[in-house]
Amino acid sequence: MTTAAIPLSAPDITETEIAAVTAVLHSGRLSIGPEMTAFEKALAHVHAVPDAVAVSSGTAALHLALVALGIGPGDEVIVPSFTFVAVANAVAQVCATPVFAEIDVATLNLDPEMVERAITPRTRALIVVHTFGVVAEMDRLMALAERHGLLVIEDACEAIGARFNERPVGSFGAAAALGFYPNKQVTTGEGGALLVRDEELAARLRRLRNQGRDITAGWLDHAEAGYNYRLSEIACALGRAQLERLDAILAARAAAAKRYDDLLRKLPGVERPAIAVDRRMLSWFVYVIRLSEGIDRERLQAQLATEGIATGRYFPPIHRQPAWRGHASTRAQLPITESVSARVLALPFWTRITAEEQERVARALGNAVRCQEA
Asked: Could you list the residue range(s) of the whole structural domain that residue 196 is in?
């Protein structure tokens, strides 16, 4: 009998979500309708902000935030290199310069001290990524930004529902991006959103996502050049149904992380992610281990693949990516980023992963590590 493959991630879709999507299909209203409004209100409520603006992706959210906040040519935006490339790409889209700063070795988020060293007279903003669902050191980063007159954009695409000092993620900066790709805690298939605290900013973001339309004037009246970054009613219905289960989803993922923590506790050569981090409520996006220096990651991945177990390298540093290599902003020395990136490995992880699947992953990982130690 062939053993079923274990994927790296899988969406958690129930009959409730299917019914919500089906209802939209029957309604005849597939765009800019009541589901978008309801989804936006629910997102704002969860994150304790006045408003949310649904868009087509987390990347679109970052891009629109930069546009609406006036970031452009000649400006520098400090970002981590240990993250998904969309962060730097969004900065490039507005013709600004991403400046890569070092991360904290424990949380894998921007190190406030290293951020301060990266600030120049051209620095206008920080994009603070809450890596793997662990909120960054927001008290120090916000104080630093205030001292230097900088805007803060939170990239909370991996951290929906997380908290820092009991305060929801996304409620600190001028704007915050959320992402709803299928591997996220909450999915809309493709999609994203912006959390905002300023009424005028929210209104402008709504114009920009819809070709710059002034909807108070008419469908073909455009107040400014904009983009087609709308999110469909189908996607919003799916996301709203998912959001109603957010607490249960986060609890299930936390339980899965705890199971891995127990299963891998005695495995040499493997550093487990922290189950609890001071002053934070985690929102588990992925389960990422760090391998010891002596373990050949590629060989280990190949061995796990022969047993049908998928793994991922989260994240190759942006400043070492072919698209960014040689760019002026890649010349900073980032030894922690490069060391961590060379050793991280994402294990299969999703909301409904079973104990049996995790046990199989742990056994296979243990065998692969021991093979290299022999």
From this structure: 15-243
